[in-house]
Amino acid sequence: MAMPAAVLPACSAGSLPRTFSLLPRRLLTIPAFPALRDGSLGCSLVGVGASSRRTPTIRRNAATETVVPYVPGSGKYIAPDYLVKKVSAKEVEELVRGERKVPLIVDFYATWCGPCVQMAQDIEMLAVEYEDNALFVKVDTDDEYEFAKDMQVRGLPTLYFFSPDQNKDALRTEGLIPIDMIRNIIDNEL
């Protein structure tokens, strides 16, 4: 007894083996990350706001030591338990407007975003690789929702690349991008 073709998704009704025709439709659909305009994977911020914010939690493995002070322009923004420091909107504005000798890369992320976690690993590796040649910081969009909205962050992760030359425009990427593309932007575009 085969189920009617209307139960199966229209695009795959003819391509599935006969043994799968007995499965109900809900078992045939596979959820995926939403694709962004450029086809990359990412998380959407649509519907995220003050009403749906989660309260920040304290990390169990957070170090109790004091944070190593930041030296502007040094490319070193190191804390005891992570390399890329989480900053506030005010700190980002100061870094962008301040005088720097190295490019500034701002990662807008959320803790609940899967692609953001994957991108964070690449950003941490790049922070080590470009220790003296680039400055990496991150902004939690749950904590800085208004700032993310002002910066037109609609999908996560979003990276902003600011050149040390104040006359150059900032570059922006949205969604999960390869680590080589980030290197290319830092080395050739800034």
From TrEMBL:
Q: Which GO terms describe its cellular component?
A: chloroplast; thylakoid
Q: Give one Pfam family.
A: Thioredoxin
Q: Where in the cell is it found?
A: Plastid, Chloroplast
- Which GO terms are recorded in the biological process aspect for this UniProt protein? cell redox homeostasis; plastid organization
Q: Which SUPFAM superfamilies match?
A: Thioredoxin-like (SSF52833)
Recorded hits in InterPro entries, A to Z, give: CITRX, Thioredoxin-like_sf, Thioredoxin_CS, Thioredoxin_domain
Question: What UniProt keywords are attached to this protein's entry?
Answer: Chloroplast, Disulfide bond, Electron transport, Oxidoreductase, Plastid, Redox-active center, Transit peptide, Transport
Per the record, the major location class is plastid
Highest taxon of source:
Eukaryota
UniProt-recorded Gene Ontology molecular function terms: protein-disulfide reductase activity
Where does the Thioredoxin domain lie?
73-190
PANTHER family referenced in this protein's UniProt entry, alphabetically? THIOREDOXIN-LIKE PROTEIN CITRX, CHLOROPLASTIC
The identity of this protein, by name, is Thioredoxin-like protein CITRX, chloroplastic
Name the species this protein comes from: Paspalum notatum var. saurae
